[in-house]
Each structure stands twice: as C-alpha cells, then as structure tokens.
C-alpha cells in the first residue's frame, strides 16, 4: 500500500501511475491522518479509488500496521474478528470504521464521529454505557424475529446519534447543497478525464465506478419499458371485452371511441411483441448472428460479474446480449449500440471497442492481479459466496490447499474444496442422461407413477450442463407425498447403491422441496452436482417453465404476466393480482393454470416456444 499522495500504485511491470488530483490545502480534511485499509492491498478497483480519494484529501495510506495508524478502514463484509485475527491483536486500539467513512467525511467536509453506529463493523465490541441491542441475524429469547424499525424511527435514531457539531454541519450543508453538488460533479468529471489517460489498470477503476451509476440503471429500465401500457383500469376496456349490443351501440353513436379502442388493441399487440419470450431463440439463430463475437466477449464479462455477485452489472450485460441477439445486422459503432433498448453509454463504448479492436480491456484487466485470480478461484468453491471468498482472501489464504489445510470450513465448503475441479467441469449431455436413467430406475421402483424429467440447459438442448436438474413429479400426488417417498426411500437407496456421494442441502419450504447433493457413475471418478426437485402434478406446467429457463426467458414471461395484471411463478399462473405503488403485490390472485405448460403460454398470449427455442 503506497504512502505517496500523488497516486495509488499497482504492482506489475509496465503499469503507470495515475496522477492524483489534490484538493486545495484548506479542504484537505484528512491532513495528518494515517489510514490502514483492510484488506491491505489494491486488488479491488473500488478500493483503489477509495484510497486515492483519501490521499487527495490529505490522508496517508499505511503499508503496514503500526503505532502511526490513526484509522482502520474495513471493506464491507469483513468482521471485527477478522481484523483482530489478521493483525494478531486482542483489540484494535485506534478508530475502526467501515468503507463508507472516508466518503461520508468528504461529503460533509469534516471529520465525523467514528463512534457512530452507521460506521461500526460487524462484531465490534459495544462501548460501555451504550445500550445493547439484539443482532439482526439472531432471534430474541421470545422466539420472534425483531421487527424492522420504520424509516421515520431510523431517521430519528440517526439524528439522536449525531453530535451538535455534526447537526450544525448538516444545516450548513443543506444551505450550500447546490454549490457542493456542482463541485462534486466537476471533480468526478475531471477524475474520469485524467483516469482515461492512465494505463489499463486505471482504465478498469474508472469503468468499475462508471458502470455503477444508479442513474444509468434507472434510465435503462425506463427505456426498456417505455412501450408498455400504463397500469390503469382503462387498458382492459377494449372492444374484445364488451357485449355485441354494446359494440353495436358504440359503432353508431361513438365512432371515435370505437376507433380509439381499435388503436388500443393494435398498440397492445405492438408492445407485447417487444418481449423476449415472443421471439424464437435457438442455438442456430444465435450462431448465425452477426454479433456473435461481441456477444461472446460480453458473455465472459457477464460470467465474471455473476461469479462476483454483482447483480446490477450482470443484469445490464444480460440486457445488452439479449438486444444484440435480436439484431439482423452487425452493431459496430457507439451510436448504433445506443439506439438499442437496454444499452447505455458504458456498454456502447465496450461494444465499439470489441468490434474495432477484437478485445476488451476491461475483460483483460478483470483478472490482472494475483489477488483477483485467487478471489475468482475461491468464488468457485461450492457453499462460498462473495463475502466468504473475500474473507478468506483477507485472512491470508492464497490457494485451495490453504483452505483445505488451514481454514475452518463447513462440511459443504470442504466438499466444495476437495471436489473443486470435479464441479468446475461441464457435464456432457450423454452423461446427464445416464445420471437421469439411474435416478429414474430407482424412482419407478419405489412408485411406478412417479416421473423423472431432466430440466435446465439439458431440456433446452444444450450439449453440456453445469449441473443435473431432475424434476420428480406424480400427477395425483401432493408435494408432501413425493417428498416422503424420495427422502425416505429413493435417496437412501441411491446412497447404498453408491450413486449418491454426499448430501449438500435439503429444503422443504412452502415454495417447494429440493434435495441438493453430488453423484458419481459406477465406472466414473468425477463427482457431479445433482438436484432433485419435487413438484406436485398440479404445478408441473409452471415448474417446467421455471426449471427449464433460461433466466432471461423466464424474466420476460414473468414481466409480461405482471403487465397483464397476472403473476407467474414456479407454482402457476395467477389472475386478478392487485398491485400498489411501484407494482408492489397487494393480493396473490386466483390460480388460473399450473398443470399445463402450453396452456400457460396460451393464456399469456405467447406463441408456444419449445424448450430449445428459449436460449435467450
């Protein structure tokens, strides 16, 4: 970690430093302070930017822990125990705050109180005299979950926690809000201009921040639904829904109304055609697309963000890929990309870069440092999410062997580490079929009426799959009956047979039942991820849609149902669903269809799309 206030250096040959933009000395609120960032590395582009911002405002960044440190700035998801364990301390003798502290200080142009609850990291000992509270993730002795305070109560609590000095600062802040907003925008624009002149590594920093622009996301969402009808009662009052006598009367005395109704029907047909589920999407269509190369590169970025748990960027890339797949001609320029729904300026720039350079610098920089590569490896461990992978990295683990031999792992995580390379390999289609046949034989032996359907990418016709999804159903059975047979007879028998190797999870919540585990063929050596999904016959049609995918197709079907005043999930299609502001569901509605997959398509007005045409 550099102490140089002019730049955040990044280890690596040939990597230049990006010149800092030091603010005027009177505004350097961090002057004389020494920040120790934890994790103490520059693997994260966002962390590099936070460090640089702190340096711009006068702080020093400590490379190693020592008495000169005044503040420890901790990344989100890391606990107090993680910090003390890594630093070999019983307690942290200096201010310990989360990653939002420096930016909040800059926002209010003053050093804020580090004892505020909003800056406290998880597990920090509560100071003597401060009222204790039940942790969010623990259930009180009464057995009831704590009620979330209202927004007004949260605001009141925050105001009480502020000192008189900070309150005065906030009043002053409100008085000059417009001036400060202008200054911040100018600083951001200037920072971007300078960052664009930096090396590939600096390029990734700017891209990370620019893509996180919430305004861009809102604008893109607005563009995506601009052609959809408003949620009003009038949208359903068309000539198709009135009696013959009313039509006749309307024809004679209200010609304008009849013309308006006709236009409304035509408009409704037009907006529905914009939905992804209305179009055919198969492997041949995708292979012949003029934008195949661009889509392939964007897909790699999507996979990277998906592994990292970045839902916003994952969704943005999915929208862009879906838009490109619909285009009959090659999209080459920024202007052409911007004309497509769901594509903003950041992604438009990337599309142009891919077309004209046959590469994407952001993708090349995604795994540019050893820390990035280690983090991506840890994210591939079954049972480990982004927070857990980041915590392992912060605790000093650098390989799967480190995790296996040194880290305290859960049983599922240990299976994920020991069979990491097995689970990472794609499963050929013919092998998926063999796994399915073994389960089918055991299921029909227990109950001849039980059926086994292979779902997921296999049902869409893919040549290989990431895991094996098997839907277990019976026309006349309830979910409880199917679950009992499977968990008490079939699953134990498959373990005794040597087919099933381990149980990773089993759920039986109200939304259905699942059994997750690993299986191995009799003559094979690789463990494969396998999911047994229990579905009653009354819900099999909706479940087939849900468990076939892909996710873009499913999102499109659900959004279309929502816009028609209905609701679609893995249990069925529901009508007469009432929604409030921001489309919040007020009533669950009445079940219209759950058993017949084709009937659900028909009720939504979507042409039947066989599974192999749902590769969006």
Automatic annotation (TrEMBL):
Positions with biased composition (Basic and acidic residues): 226-239
Q: Where is this chain's protein located in or outside the cell?
A: Nucleus
Where in the sequence is the active site? Answer: 350 (nucleophile)
Q: Which Pfam families match?
A: DNA_pol_B_palm, DNA_pol_B_thumb, DNA_pol_lambd_f, HHH_8
Kindly indicate where the leader peptide sits in this chain.
none
**Stretches for region Disordered:** 124-155, 226-261
Q: Which GO terms describe its cellular component?
A: nucleus
Instruction: Give me the reactions it catalyses.
Output: DNA(n) + a 2'-deoxyribonucleoside 5'-triphosphate = DNA(n+1) + diphosphate
Cofactor entry? Mn(2+)
- The EC number on file is 2.7.7.7
Q: Where is the BRCT domain?
A: 25-119
A GO BP annotation: DNA replication
Q: Tell me the protein family, please.
A: Belongs to the DNA polymerase type-X family.
Job of this protein: DNA polymerase that functions in several pathways of DNA repair. Involved in base excision repair (BER) responsible for repair of lesions that give rise to abasic (AP) sites in DNA. Also contributes to DNA double-strand break repair by non-homologous end joining and homologous recombination. Has both template-dependent and template-independent (terminal transferase) DNA polymerase activities. Has also a 5'-deoxyribose-5-phosphate lyase (dRP lyase) activity.
**Designated name of the protein:** DNA polymerase
Q: Which organism is it from?
A: Aspergillus saccharolyticus JOP 1030-1
């Amino acid at each position: 970690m550099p102490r140089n206030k002019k730049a955040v250096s990044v280890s690596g040959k040939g990597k230049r430093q990006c010149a800092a933009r030091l603010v005027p000395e009177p505004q350097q609120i961090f002057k004389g302070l020494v920040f120790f960032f934890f994790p103490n590395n520059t693997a994260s582009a966002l962390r590099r930017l936070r460090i640089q911002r702190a340096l711009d405002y006068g702080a020093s960044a400590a490379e190693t822990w020592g008495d000169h440190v005044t503040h420890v700035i901790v990344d989100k998801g890391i606990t107090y125990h993680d910090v003390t364990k890594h630093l070999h301390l019983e307690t942290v003798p200096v201010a310990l705050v989360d990653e939002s502290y420096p930016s909040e200080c800059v926002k209010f142009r003053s050093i804020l109180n580090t004892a505020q609850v909003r800056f406290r990291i998880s597990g920090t000992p509560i100071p003597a005299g401060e009222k204790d509270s039940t942790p969010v993730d623990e259930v009180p002795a009464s057995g009831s979950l704590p009620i979330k305070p209202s927004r007004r109560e949260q605001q009141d609590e925050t105001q009480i926690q502020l000192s008189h000095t900070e309150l005065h600062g906030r009043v002053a802040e409100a008085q000059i809000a417009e001036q400060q907003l202008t200054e911040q925008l100018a600083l951001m624009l200037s920072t971007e201009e300078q960052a664009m002149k930096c090396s590939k590594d600096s390029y990734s920093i700017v891209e990370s921040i620019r893509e996180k622009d919430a305004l861009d996301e809102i604008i893109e969402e607005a563009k995506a639904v601009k052609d959809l009808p408003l949620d009003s009662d009038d949208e359903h009052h068309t000539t198709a829904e009135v009696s013959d006598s009313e039509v006749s009367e309307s024809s004679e005395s209200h010609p304008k109304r009849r013309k308006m109704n006709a236009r409304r029907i035509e408009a409704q047909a037009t907006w529905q055609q914009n939905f992804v589920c209305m179009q055919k999407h198969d492997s041949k269509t995708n292979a012949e697309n003029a934008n195949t190369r661009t889509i392939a590169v964007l897909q790699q970025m999507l996979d990277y963000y998906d592994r990292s748990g970045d839902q916003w960027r994952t969704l943005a890339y999915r929208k862009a890929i879906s838009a490109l797949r619909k285009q009959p001609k090659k999209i080459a320029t920024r202007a052409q990309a911007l004309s497509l729904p769901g594509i903003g300026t950041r992604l438009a720039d990337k599309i142009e870069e891919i077309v004209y350079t046959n590469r994407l610098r952001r993708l090349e920089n995604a795994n540019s440092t050893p820390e990035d590569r280690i983090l991506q490896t840890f994210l591939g461990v079954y049972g480990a999410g982004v927070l857990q992978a980041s915590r392992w990295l912060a605790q000093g683990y650098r390989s799967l062997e480190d995790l296996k031999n040194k880290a305290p792992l859960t049983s599922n995580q240990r299976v994920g580490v020991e069979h990491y390379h097995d689970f990472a390999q794609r499963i050929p289609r013919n092998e998926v079929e063999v796994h399915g046949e073994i389960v089918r034989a055991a299921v029909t032996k227990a109950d001849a009426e039980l059926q086994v359907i292979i779902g997921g990418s296999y049902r869409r016709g893919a040549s290989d799959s990431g895991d094996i999804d098997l839907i277990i159903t019976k026309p006349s059975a309830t979910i409880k009956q199917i679950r009992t047979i499977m968990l008490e007879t079939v699953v134990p028998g498959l373990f005794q047979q040597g087919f099933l190797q381990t149980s990773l999870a089993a759920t039986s919540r109200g939304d259905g039942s699942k059994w997750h585990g690993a299986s191995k063929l009799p003559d094979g050596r690789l463990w494969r991820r396998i999911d047994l999904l229990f579905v009653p016959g009354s819900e099999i049609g909706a479940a087939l849609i849900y468990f076939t995918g892909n996710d873009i197709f499913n999102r499109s079907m659900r959004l279309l149902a929502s816009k028609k005043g209905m609701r679609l999930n893995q249990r069925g299609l529901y009508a007469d669903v009432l929604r409030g502001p921001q489309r919040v569901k007020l009533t669950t509605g009445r079940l219209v269809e759950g058993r017949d997959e084709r009937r659900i398509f028909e009720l939504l007005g979507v042409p039947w799309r066989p599974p192999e045409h749902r590769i969006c």
